[in-house]
Amino acid sequence: MKKTLSLFISVCFLLSFVLLSACAGDDASGEEEGGGKPITLYSPETPELSKELAAKYEELNGTKVNVNYAGTNVLVNKMMAEKGNPQADVWYGGGGILPFEAAVDKDIITSYIPESAEDWEVVEDGIKVKHEDGYYVGTEMFVLGFAYNTELVSEEEAPKTWEDLLDPKWKGKIQFPNPAASGTATLMVLSYMMQHGEEAGWEYFQKLKDQANSIPDSGSGPTKGASMGEAHIAIGFDFMAYEHKANGETVDFIVPEKTPILVNPVTLVKDGPNPEGGKKFMDFMLSKEAQEILADWYHIPINPEVESKTSLSVDNIKEHAVDLDIDWVNENYDRIRDEWKTKIK
């Protein structure tokens, strides 16, 4: 009788151990205590910004967000290599919509529009705010314009149009990113050519190149140069200048009369391991909580309930927007970028 009881207890103990091990195995495979399956976010935005967004999502939803940071081109190539076995659930940011437009043809993203953006028009006030088939949605606005060093240039004399940059007084005092390397600068070139034609465009940029004292590969490099007094004027996105200004550096920003204004999107990775988590993170990116974080980083929030931390808002920039022919951009992006290397001496 004792032997039988002892055997029964041993079997029960063994079964309990097996069940506990199985539960532990389930946790290791993805489920977290108190939350759902972790979300993997790919983002080229400032790592601290992406991590802050991830931390806020975790705080609100109890679900872990793993942030993978790299440059836009690196992340796109990574998603291409991972087709068939995607590792990311959601992709946020890339300096505007152009890499997301290209990603549609690469078949690495899929359609999902958060409920809060379902009623948005595809183009509002001349700015494309979401993809026509739902492949991405904008989270904030970026304005391409002129940063200027406030100790070297007054607001009154700072350039107000793209043509103003060719004034002889700016010779040797301008920096702009290299279009052969920077998506920011490629956008500048394509936008000008759409308005004035390619022949006039190449003439303009040869003259602009002759005005420059440096053409760094980095999109943010010129604005940093202006903040340090290495240039009087720099071409870049608005938030770059306002970040330096907030740090006490002598730099401010001019919105040109007509200029590219783009949303910076978020999208769902096709066949990602946690599509429901990816959708929830996209919903979160348009929420007041996430938009307040973006505003704190001097981005222009797209949610009207959140106030911009800069002098720029959706209402006061929309009249400056250039109507971009996205199909033309997609068709000519690589060609124009390659031709820059041979046409601009």
TrEMBL record:
One Pfam family per UniProt: SBP_bac_6
Annotated signal peptide: 1-24
UniProt keyword annotation of Translocase present: no
Keywords assigned: Signal
GO molecular-function term, one example from the UniProt record: thiamine pyrophosphate binding
UniProt keyword Protein transport present: no
Any one Gene Ontology BP term: thiamine transport
One Gene Ontology cellular component: outer membrane-bounded periplasmic space
PROSITE patterns membership: PROKAR_LIPOPROTEIN
Listed name of the protein: ABC transporter substrate-binding protein
